[in-house]
Amino acid sequence: MMVLxxxxxxxxxxxxxxxxxxxxxxxxxxRLGEGRWxxxxxxxxxxxxxxLIWGFVLARSESVDLWTPPKAMRHVAAGLTxxxxxxxxxxxxxxxxxxxxxxxxxxxxxxxWAIGHxxxxxxxxxxxxxxAFLLWAAVDFSSLRRRDRAAGRRYPALGLRRDALAxxxxxxxxxxxxxxxxxxxxxVQPLG
Length: 192
Fold this sequence. Notes:
This protein is mostly helical. The chain contains nine helices and no strands.
């Protein structure tokens, strides 16, 4: 579990700098330049993500069962991950009402993904991975919304087409991943 823990600390730590050390970040960007800062941030994130994946594979094989979720939780998880995929798609489709209402749909989608996986999995490794992402996303979402309010930032809603595009892309991506990608990448068929 140590490799997973280190990976989570590096990956989520890098993604938490604006939450906990925004002034320090601004000084580093000024000192290093934006390009070098982004390169270091990317390297730390990728290295942390690699450790996170490797650590999760190791931890899953030697993890302790904490509980046995009811089979119905798989359906709840599928619904929450569907919502997560739509939210993530909404983060990239400009001018949709989801982004206008939520502000930061990718982070909210991360919360939905984590909650769904916590409900459907009972290993200690699952609790560490998905619990860490849930905690990070909740703190980050709150911080982002607070910054938006302080800056008076609003996100535009430009029509139903953009809403439909965000929902459609999310649904298609979720279906493809649930049917093909999850088994290929994770080794588990969530809908099978």
